[in-house]
Design goal:
Elements: H1 10-13, H2 20-25, E1 36-37, H3 38-45, E2 49-53, E3 56-59, H4 60-64, E4 71-72, H5 75-88, H6 97-100
Antiparallel strand pairs: 1-4, 2-3
Pfam family, one: DUF5785
């Protein structure tokens, strides 16, 4: 796919490689953008690349295909729903601390 910018370039990662949620969150001004419409977010950023892992890049629109909410009241609500949607789509690879803490007990 042709992206509007390189997902690992300056515009895509602000000089450092960022993945998943970090890429989505940096497009939001927590003080000014809420409530936030999912449709407006996708309209503005839908074709932007989001690096999922070292070899996978998907569009913002692909991630939002799994988002159930139409609007987010605040940054926490946005993060929770995007995390749920990304896990559902197989775009989330963090297993959680419980996987590692006390796993051998």
């Amino acid at each position: 796919m042709d992206w509007p910018h390189d997902p690992d370039g300056e515009e895509g990662s602000e000089g450092k490689r960022k993945y998943g949620h970090a890429v989505l969150a940096k497009k939001i001004d927590e003080e000014e953008d809420f409530p936030l419409s999912a449709a407006e977010y996708v309209e503005e950023y839908g074709d932007h690349p989001v690096r999922i892992d070292y070899e996978t890049v998907v569009s913002v629109e692909e991630i939002f295909d799994n988002v159930d909410r139409e609007e987010f009241a605040d940054f926490v609500e946005f993060h929770r729903e995007l995390g749920r949607a990304m896990r559902e789509a197989g775009y989330w690879f963090y297993e959680g601390a419980e996987t590692f803490v006390g796993a051998d007990a």
